[in-house]
Amino acid sequence: MKIMGNTGFRGLLTPMRLVVVLLPFFFPASSGWAANATVKDGATLLLAGVTYRLDGGDAPEFDQICVDDHADPWTCGVEARDQLTRLIGGRGVHCEDLGPDKTLPKRHAGLCTVDGETASLNQLMVRQGFALTSEPSAKGHFKSDETAAKDGKTGLWRGCFVAPQEFRHGKKDGTLLGAACRSDKDREIRAVLFPEESAAPPGCNIKAKFAVRARVTGNLGIYQLQGCRSYAPLTRPDRWFCSEDDAQAAGFRRAYNCRAATRKR
Fold it and tell me: Which of 34, 175, 222, 235 is the most buried (most CB within 10 A)?
């Protein structure tokens, strides 16, 4: 038997080193690879430092309220977030980065999948009735999935709601969607979907209000942080956010008379 010396081992290891060195070049930097993802809402997740908006679908905002099939208020935005979390189920997530999102420039559009699934999370959320199709879409056209969810009265479709895009813009006269919508209860349903005094979702304490004056700077409205002078007087916020990043991504700016709380020395 011939025993190789150190030189022989070095000869074997050299190709292995080359493989290790070359591997990064085969995986594009624009893709987020399997890792633990943080779900922010039914259409948004944070992966490898990048916040992705699931391309081709539009889920309810985290603070959005819907009506269920029993005509009761339903925190559908929280449920959509939980549904996306369940779909991931602790598995690795992969996101193809499609560039800046067209409607929310502070986010990236992404086509995301989980280990063991062939269908994307984008498609699954629409298929299960917790997201609507959104156009234009770079990678996903899920109209047939939306039709099946609507016909099957699954997810949001079993109740009554407004499209997330209309909720984001405070369009209280928007089209009502879902099997539980009743024309003779239009006013009552809209009062539930856009309550005068909305409750803060879990972990979200930033208050926001639509404001015409904010449009001068290209925003939809203004938000207030806890500890700011106008926070307590704002008793009827239009929106609630969990972070300043979320508020800014949705088109709100911090009130000029509001400063972030500072730590005491």
Answer: 222
Contact by Cβ (8 Å): 98, 53: no
Residue the block writes with tokens 């679908």: 57
Model-level pTM greater than 0.85? no
Cα(167)–Cα(65) distance, integer angstroms:
9
Q: How far is CA 53 from CA 44, 96, 110, in A?
A: 5, 11, 6
Architecture of domain 31-64+74-156: Beta Barrel (2.40)
Per-residue b/e over 204-225, b at no fewer than 16 CB within 10 Å? bebbbbbbeebeeeebbbbbbb
Kindly tell me if the per-residue pLDDT of 78 is higher than 70: yes
Distance in angstroms between the alpha carbons of the first and the last residue of the chain:
73
Ranges of each domain in the chain: 31-64+74-156, 206-254
